[in-house]
Every structure is written in structure tokens, then in C-alpha cells.
Design goal:
The complex is a heterodimer of chains A (247) and B (513). Chain A has 247 residues and is α/β, with parallel strands linked by helices. In chain A, 38% of the residues lie in helices and 24% in strands. Chain A has helices at residues 48-55, 77-82, 99-109, 114-127, 143-155, 173-188, 200-206, 224-230, 236-246; strands at residues 11-20, 22-32, 37-41, 63-68, 71-72, 84-87, 161-165, 192-196, 209-214, 217-222. In chain A, the strands form two sheets. Chain A has a six-stranded mixed beta sheet with strand order 6-7-8-3-9-10, sandwiched between helices. A four-stranded antiparallel beta sheet of chain A has the order 2-1-4-5. In chain A, helix 3 crosses helix 4 (114-127) and helix 3 (99-109) packs parallel to helix 5. The longest helix of chain A is centred in the last third of the chain and has 16 residues, at 173-188. Chain A starts with 10 loop residues before the first strand and ends with a helix. Chain B has 513 residues and is mainly alpha-helical. In chain B, helix 2 crosses helix 5 (111-143) and helix 16 runs parallel beside helix 19 (486-507). The chains are: A alpha/beta (247), B mainly alpha (513). Chains A and B meet through helix 2, strand 6, helix 3 and helix 4 of A and helix 11 and helix 14 of B.
Chain lengths: 247, 513
């Protein structure tokens, strides 16, 4: 499943910049190791989603470099995208497709062979409790079901790097637990997860390292313990508010 | 309109405000722009001038009042079928597509008031266009000494109310019988058929067996005009006589409209609420036991994209009805192709070319411009070129497959004319697809009917391409039957315009972001 040697980082951003009239991302340098769950935090408008959209090739940076699993996104976007999956806060679904049809389409986009896609699709639908809804159009799904189906689509090609923008927003407790378990199991299996969230308890409990950005710049990065040290303790919420208000 | 907050009048004011924002005149603004006002004033002046010309000619011709009533009745009958079509669409919109009914029904407003206002909204939306079309006749007639024609206003409003009630009742009955999901499809299909009904009726003469069809048509018309449905005393002409100011028919029509409205509101508002509850359940099918999941993964990306696009089209009732409407217009042409015994005339090729081009343009807009998840496609490692080609194929294959058999039949009957028609149909279909592929703009599927306004360049090039390919078809097929020499000059001009439209689209093609 490895695309490049396992000692290269899962994601490396160097001097990433993007302007929309004003700087949205302003010289961002981030390195995420393989097998790590990295939480990217920041207040509204800090540049989190813009960063993720540049990482996934949906937005071209004005300056800087994005390297996914050792592959330069600008030079070989197809190879970089092959080992990655992106889940935005608004799930990328088709209302008039049924779950198996959606997975068939996503598998086709990632070029999976039918014989490898079928058992994975079946397993994912069972695991995420969607098999009993396999004959329904996704337009009638709740937000949680939609998010789970989008996750199934993201996981069907077994990506090494999973990127999620606000994956738990609007989910009920059971669905949120399921998604969190899934992320932890992905990391336990050697995969990498990068997520943004406004629910700081989630980052506190799941993330191995946390990056905090404000106005497009990385203002702090490290484990929760390291961040606490910098700010004289407290919860992640205290740390976050201290850092973002101070910067 | 300033009713007390929470009253039916206040709600009506809210509806009218929303209708104003959605209208072509306002352009979505509180006050229309100067350009919009100028265009509408100009349109009004032209309509009044046309009405004056027609009424002046009628005055000189000395048409009897009886005949005038019959003519007005026929026009209103034509209008009524279009009103039914737009009324059905408006009912589907009111029941299933507008997202504000949950808010309204959760408020202390009585559901009867909500239904009454919504039904009135359907009637007003049906009447507006026809008041714009027929109103100038009333205004001009007043100055020409025929004040009775002012009755056009109440007659059209009354007819629209009756038709709106019929459309709402039909929609609610369909919900009762078939459930909300099927009703959405059925109502849209019925609206399409109602819209095309007059076209199909107008083609009845062409579709009659040749030979003695002139005699049969004349006999039928004569007999209907003497004793049957088309006789001068027939109740069919009452709305026409009402519109021209005959007191009793006008009074009857208005009373009928009021009665229909009050009865519909009084007797069926519970069905309305039931219909809404059914609509809320759309998409919530009963779960089936696990283990019955069936996959059909495909080994080619091209095939995967095509299947996905076709699934999305066939499951969208609104789009089906729009596409179906275009297919309905194809029916008489296909009958002529299959039935005729002599060489196919140039009009058949022209008609097929125009309809296939417009059908492809619609499908291409749905498939290419109205992609629901563009970020999913762009985040995937799949080749963008393959996806675009597959989308182009998904849009162009249905019209070509649909016409493959009739075109083969045409080629078998008249090889040269058939081949030339097949060439122009294929050219028109590919051009329509490519124009959207190159200069189409991302849009939401729900904006299908507004697509022309959203991308004017694409609309103009589409129209130019359709007309020039159709013109080319006409000239080329005419040449096979020894037409005039002007067609020799017109054919290359039509081809040049078609290619120029394509070239312009290519030059302005949108680069992938």
C-alpha cells in the first residue's frame, strides 16, 4: 500500500501561501508524520479549510509546496491524490444515488478493480451500519448517515492519508463515537489522519499532535503536553484561547 | 399588502413579495434596474401595438360577434392547457420543493390559511403571463370603443383560478393514490404532456393516413361545427364570450372560479397537510435486511461515470419532465419518418436536427454543468480528460441512440437524404455537447429552467449552433430533391456559422481550475 518510502512524512507543507484579496494562508510550514493523528485548530477564518483544499489539490497555492506521501502535488497530482482521501464538512455525495452506487462511483474514480472494491464496500457498509439503508437514496439520509457514507467512500481505496474538515459537526453521540473509533483504528493500522475541528475535546482526546493557526500562520504546534507547558497548563480550550488571543 | 401579522392577508403579502423577487422583471431586487424597466416598457408597447393592429384588422374585416367569441374561446382554451401545465408545476413546487412549509406549518397560522394563500399563489402565477399577453387587447379595445373587452381581466383571472384548483386537486389525488415520490414524477410528466398537448393536436392532421385525409378532416370539422363540441352555441366558447364582456357567461365564470376556490380550500386543506407529510417522508424507504446489498463495480472509469450520470438523470422527476417535453415534440416527426412512403422532405431532417440539438444541450447542462460533487472529482486521481469525455458521451449518447433506428430507416428509404440528415443530426448533437463542455458554468440542478439566464454566452452559441445545423439539414436535403440554386449558397453559409459557433466556444473554453 506504500506509495513511497515509509520514512518520508505523510504531509509536508513548505512556505504555503494563498491570497483572496487578503492573505488566507501566509507562509505555512507543517510536517505530519506517518501513522499520526494531527489536529489543525484555529478560530473561524484562520485558513484551515483553505489549507486543506490546497493539500488535496482543490486549490492551487500562490506560493509554496505541498508534498503528500513524498510526492509533490504540483508535479504529479494524480499520484499524490491516489494515496489520500478528503472529507469536507459538507459530504461530497449525490442525493439520487444509493450507498452501493456511490461506492461504485468512488471506487471507479480511484481506479479500484471490482474484485478488490466489492469486499471492501460490503465491509464498510456493514461496519458503518449502512447495509440496511443500501436501497435508499442518500437524499433522505440524516447528516450522520451522510457523513458515514462519505467516510465509507473515503476509505474504500484504503488511503494512507485521510484528511477531514470538521468531521463531527452535527453528528449524534453514537455516530460521533463511530467516526472517532474509525479514525483511531485507521491510525492504529498505520494510516495518517489530519483533521480540523472546533470541538476541542475531540482534538484533546484523539490527536497526537496539534497545530494551531491564526490568520493563515502557524502560531503553535506540538503535543498537548507541550502546548500546556507553553501556556502554563489548563485544558486545550484554555491553551487554545490563550494562544489565539495572545497572537 | 399590509395585513395584521399572522393573518391570511399578511401571508399573501409575503407570498407576493417572494413572487416579485423571483419574477423576471425584478431580477431578484426590491426595485428593478433601469434596463429591466426599459425592456418591460418596450415589451408592453410592442404588445399594445400588436393588439391595436389585430383589432384594427378585425374591425375592418367585420367579423361577427359570434365568431369573435369563438376565436377568443379557442385562444383561452389554448391558454388553459398551458395554465394547467404551469399549475401542475407550481403545485409540485408548493408541495415538495419549497423549503418554507415546515416553518409555516409549525407557526400558529391555521393550515387552511396557508393552503388558501398557496393555492392563490398558484392561480396568480398561472394568470400573470396571460394577463400580460391578453391585457393589451382589453386596454386597446377600450380606446376603440369596446369597453366590454375589459372583461378579459376577470375572465383570465377566473379561468386561472379554476385551472389552479384543478391542478391542486389532481396533485393531491395523485399523492393519495400513488404517494409523494411517484406524484412528483407523475405531475411533472402530466405537466409536460399538457404543455405539449396542443402541439400534438395540431399535428393530428399530419398524422392522419394520407389519401382522403383532406376530406376526413373537412367532414369532421364541419360536423363538429354544426352540431357538436365546436358549434357556435357550445359551452366550450363560454369563456371566450365572457372575456369579450357578455354579462351572463362572465358572471358564471367568476362564480364558478370563486366556488371552485372556496370548495377546494374548504374541503381539501387536510389533504394538503397530508400531502406535505408524505413529502417529508420522501427518501425514507423502509430498511431492508442486511446482506441484500448488491454491488456492480465497473472496471472502466468511463463506464462508471456514464452509469452514474444516467442514474442521476432518470431519478430526477423534474429533469425527466423537462427532457420528456422535448421527446414529445419528437413523436410526430418520428411518425412521419417511419410512416411516409415517398422521399423524406427537408423539414423532417430539420426538425430532427433541431430537437436533438436542444435535447443534447439540456442533457449536457445536467451532466456537465450541474455536477453535484465537483470537489469529489477534482480530489480524485482520475484523469479529468476521461471524466469530461465520459460526461460528453453521457449527454450525447441518448439522443443519438434514440434516433439511430429512425435515421437508419430514413437512410434505407432515401439513402442520400437520410445520410445527410444523419450527418447534421450528429453534428448538431456533438456541437451542443461540446459547447457546454467548453463554456458551461457550474450550476445547481435545481436551476435547470434558469440555465439560459445564467450563462447567456452558452445560450446564444447553442441557439446559433442549433439553427445553423438545422438550416444545413434543410438545404442539404432540399438539394437531393433538386431544389433551387439558392440552397447551394445557403448550405456552406449554414455550415460556416455552425463551425464558427463551435470555434467561438473553443476559444472561450474554461480552463480547469
Amino acid at each position: 500500500m506504500s506509495l513511497t518510502s515509509s520514512d518520508t512524512p505523510a504531509l509536508q507543507l513548505r512556505g504555503l501561501r494563498k491570497h483572496f484579496g487578503r492573505p488566507a494562508v501566509d507562509g505555512l510550514d507543517i510536517t505530519v508524520r506517518r501513522g499520526e493523528l494531527y489536529a489543525l485548530l484555529g478560530p473561524n477564518g484562520a485558513g484551515k479549510t483553505t489549507t486543506l483544499r490546497m493539500v488535496t489539490g482543490l486549490l492551487a497555492p500562490d506560493e509554496g509546496q505541498v508534498e503528500v506521501l513524498g510526492i509533490d502535488m504540483a508535479r504529479d497530482p494524480a499520484a499524490a491524490k491516489r494515496g489520500m482521501a478528503y472529507l469536507p464538512d459538507d459530504a461530497l455525495l449525490y442525493g439520487k444515488l444509493k450507498p452501493p452506487e456511490y461506492l461504485e462511483f468512488v471506487a471507479g474514480l480511484w481506479g479500484l478493480r471490482p474484485e478488490e472494491a466489492e469486499p471492501r464496500g460490503r465491509h464498510l457498509l456493514d461496519w458503518l451500519d449502512l447495509s440496511k439503508h443500501a436501497h435508499e437514496l442518500t437524499e433522505g439520509f440524516s447528516r450522520g448517515m451522510k457523513q458515514k457514507l462519505a467516510l465509507a467512500g473515503a476509505l474504500i481505496h484504503e488511503p494512507q492519508l485521510l484528511i477531514l474538515d470538521e468531521p463531527l459537526t452535527g453528528l449524534d453521540a453514537a455516530a460521533a463515537r463511530q467516526v472517532k473509533d474509525l479514525l483511531l483504528s485507521h491510525v492504529a493500522g498505520g494510516g495518517t489522519v489530519i483533521l480540523t475541528t472546533h470541538i476541542l475535546e475531540v482534538a484533546e482526546r484523539l490527536a497526537q499532535r496539534i497545530g494551531i493557526i491564526r490568520q493563515g500562520r502557524l502560531i503553535a504546534e506540538g503535543t498537548l503536553a507541550e502546548l500546556r507547558e507553553r501556556t502554563l497548563g489548563g485544558s486545550l480550550e484554555d491553551v487554545f484561547l490563550h494562544l489565539t488571543e495572545q497572537a | 399588502m399590509n395585513g395584521a401579522p399572522g393573518s391570511a392577508l399578511w401571508l399573501l403579502g409575503h407570498e407576493l413579495r417572494l413572487a416579485w423577487y423571483g419574477s423576471a422583471i425584478s431580477g431578484g431586487k426590491r426595485r428593478p434596474g433601469t434596463a429591466s424597466i426599459v425592456v418591460w416598457v418596450l415589451a408592453c408597447v410592442i404588445m399594445h401595438a400588436a393588439a391595436f393592429a389585430l383589432l384594427y384588422a378585425l374591425g375592418k374585416g367585420g367579423m361577427s360577434e359570434e365568431l369573435q367569441g369563438m376565436a377568443a374561446g379557442a385562444v383561452l382554451l389554448v391558454g388553459a392547457t398551458f395554465m394547467l401545465s404551469s399549475g401542475l408545476k407550481a403545485c409540485v413546487l408548493a408541495l415538495f420543493e419549497r423549503g418554507d412549509l415546515d416553518l409555516l406549518l409549525s407557526s400558529p397560522l391555521p393550515s387552511r390559511s396557508i393552503f388558501a394563500v398557496r393555492l392563490l399563489g398558484v392561480a396568480v402565477s398561472s394568470a400573470t403571463l396571460f394577463l400580460f399577453l391578453f391585457g393589451p387587447f382589453a386596454n386597446v379595445a377600450l380606446f376603440m370603443g369596446r369597453p366590454g373587452w375589459l372583461a378579459i381581466y376577470p375572465a383570465v383571472a377566473a379561468l386561472a383560478t379554476i385551472i389552479a384548483c384543478a391542478a391542486m386537486l389532481l396533485t393531491l389525488v395523485l399523492v393519495r393514490l400513488f404517494g409523494a415520490r411517484r406524484t412528483m414524477v407523475l405531475a411533472q410528466v402530466l405537466a409536460a404532456i399538457a404543455g405539449a398537448l396542443l402541439f400534438l393536436l395540431s399535428q393530428a392532421y399530419n398524422l392522419m393516413p394520407r389519401g382522403n385525409r383532406e376530406e376526413v378532416a373537412a367532414d369532421t370539422a364541419h360536423s363538429l361545427m354544426q352540431h357538436g363540441l365546436l358549434a357556435p352555441a357550445s359551452p366550450l366558447w363560454l369563456p371566450g364570450r365572457a372575456a369579450l364582456g357578455e354579462a351572463l357567461p362572465l358572471f358564471g365564470l367568476v362564480v364558478l372560479a370563486l366556488g371552485a376556490y372556496l370548495l377546494t380550500v374548504g374541503r381539501t386543506h387536510r389533504f394538503f397537510v397530508h400531502g406535505l407529510q408524505q413529502a417529508a417522508a420522501i427518501g425514507h424507504a423502509a430498511p431492508r435486511p442486511a446482506g441484500s446489498v448488491r454491488f456492480r463495480f465497473r472496471s472502466s472509469l468511463f463506464e462508471t461515470v456514464i452509469v452514474k450520470e444516467w442514474r442521476l438523470i432518470v431519478r430526477d422527476p423534474h429533469l425527466i419532465s423537462q427532457v420528456l417535453l422535448q421527446l414529445i415534440y419528437l413523436v410526430p416527426l418520428l411518425v412521419l419518418v417511419v410512416r411516409g412512403s415517398d422521399a423524406p422532405g427537408p423539414l423532417i431532417g430539420t426538425g430532427l436536427t433541431m430537437l436533438c440539438s436542444s435535447l443534447t444541450a439540456s442533457l449536457a447542462w445536467i451532466v456537465i454543468s450541474a455536477e453535484d460533487a465537483p470537489d469529489l472529482l477534482r480530489a480524485a486521481p482520475a484523469a479529468a480528460r476521461t471524466i469530461r469525455l465520459a460526461k460528453l458521451a453521457a449527454a450525447t449518447m441518448p439522443p443519438l441512440l434514440l434516433l439511430a433506428l429512425p435515421l437508419l430507416w430514413l437512410i434505407a428509404r432515401a439513402p442520400l437524404a437520410g445520410l445527410l440528415a444523419a450527418f447534421t443530426v450528429t453534428g448538431a448533437v456533438l456541437s451542443a455537447g461540446l459547447i457546454t463542455l467548453w463554456i458551461g458554468r457550474p450550476a445547481a440542478r435545481s436551476n435547470f429552467q434558469k440555465r439560459g439566464k445564467e450563462n447567456v454566452a452558452s445560450t446564444i452559441l447553442d441557439l446559433l449552433s442549433t439553427l445553423s445545423w438545422a438550416g444545413l439539414s434543410f438545404t442539404l436535403v432540399s438539394l437531393t430533391s433538386g431544389a433551387a440554386t439558392w440552397t447551394l449558397i445557403a448550405a456552406p453559409i449554414a455550415l460556416a456559422v455552425a463551425l464558427a459557433a463551435l470555434l467561438t466556444a473553443w476559444l472561450f473554453r474554461r480552463r480547469a481550475q
